[in-house]
Amino acid sequence: MRRRLFFGITGTRVVKNEMLKKHTSFRIGGTASYFAYVYSKKALARMLCTIKKRRMRYFVLGSGTNVLFSDKGFAGVVIKLSGAFKRIQRKDNLFTCGGGVLIETFLRTAAHQKYGGAEFLVGIPGTIGGGIKGNAGAFGKSFADITRHIFTMNKKGEEKCLKHSAIGFGYRTSQLRHGIIVLAAVLAMKRNNPSRIKNLMARNRASRLKRMPLGFSAGSFFKNPLPNTAGALIESCGLKGSRIGDAEVSTIHANWIINRGRAQASDVLRLMHMIQRTVKREKGIILQPEVQILR
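Given the sequence above, the corresponding structure tokens read:
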């Protein structure tokens, strides 16, 4: 029965026992019981109905840049929004972007149509849906500054429109609970000169690249405990270059954990706990991971 679990749901492509390390920037993770590419809202609703009926776990994976999967993999369904979820439409200064649209694709599309206002997102990997759930941002701004409202679907396959105030944006977070899927978002942009947009994007990209270590990683690992920064705290504890297995605290930016090639999730987690213990002992501050950890 399990072999034909999602058989007949048109608008999907389901792969069994898919290796998750192929789909994450960390290049870490075991296999997912099911890896489902979903191309429409109707197909997504039907799939969620089946998942709920079977009492299975599920996780919506964006571009895999802010997630750490267990070495044992994911016993459930990993969903990848494709097809209709990668569309972008504009009406005046409002861009309606599918949850599966890459942030960089959105920025290029807006710039091509002479709209800016989200240049602070340049260089941030990930999708619109993931960016909104985690309120991604840089240079003092975030998705909260440009999001008007979003369209979501819950685990029952029910759709809902949420205004900005109902999203519950916070620092690198939102109140969108686990299981809520961002189908699309309406983002407010500003008309601007294309050359100005291009120059600002180039400056922001160059600034990020100067601070961006090379190697497989999930980007900034810990949230900044404002007014401090996680990187400065970790560096001041002398942890740059600390290593467990093939997982290493970057020597370029201390808030990045790098997979030097063969790191396991267990290596990363042991290194994470060591960093947390050291910073708490020496600075009295508890660092919280920004990366989603799926065990």
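The first strand starts at residue 12 and ends at 19. Try to locate this feature in the token string yourself.
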